Amino acid sequence: MDRIDLLILQNPGASRFPPDTVRAAFEAVCGANGRCRYVELPERERTAFTANEVRDAVQAGCRRVVAVGGDGTIGMVAGALIRHAPPTGAVSLGIVPAGTANIFAKELGIPIELNEAVRTATEDADTVAIDAILAGDRFVLTQVGIGPDAIMIRHTSREDQARRGRLAYITTFLQRAFRHRSRSFAITADGSVIRARALGSTVVCANPSTR
Known about the structure:
By secondary structure, the chain is α/β, with parallel strands linked by helices. It contains 8 helices and 10 strands.
């Protein structure tokens, strides 16, 4: 791969903007810059594909990777950066919030409007250091949930998100949450054990570095 300065990874299934509209917004900013690489993520094997794109771009001198999508897409791209970018922080992550909830972008104050978000993601703006939560083999930037909260996200289809937005999540939650009984949990944090009983079996671990 020839040297590139900017890698843009778009999830075409994100619900807020059509892919062609997003690409046009980036072309308006990047112009004829041949060192900008724009890639739409495939439907299958997306995590491995993203990791390969990020690894190759970093090896080609890329200094910023932009994720276009929702919280899941952003976490996936960030995970690839953690694994393949130098630990010095020389490669930064830009974000264009294009999903349904966009919790991470809102916590950081990133613009929601497309053109403004694209400018923010591509310009030499200030960056902030963000910790990541390692859950199994995945890195998460916002929060990890156990119980109805996680089930709500898992079982809300892309089609329903695109059609009804955040209402789709609420409907799924109401349909499934009351099937779960409360349970006891033991949580070990910084060497201390916290014992609690969770209503509806819900436990949420949030990342304080985004707040």
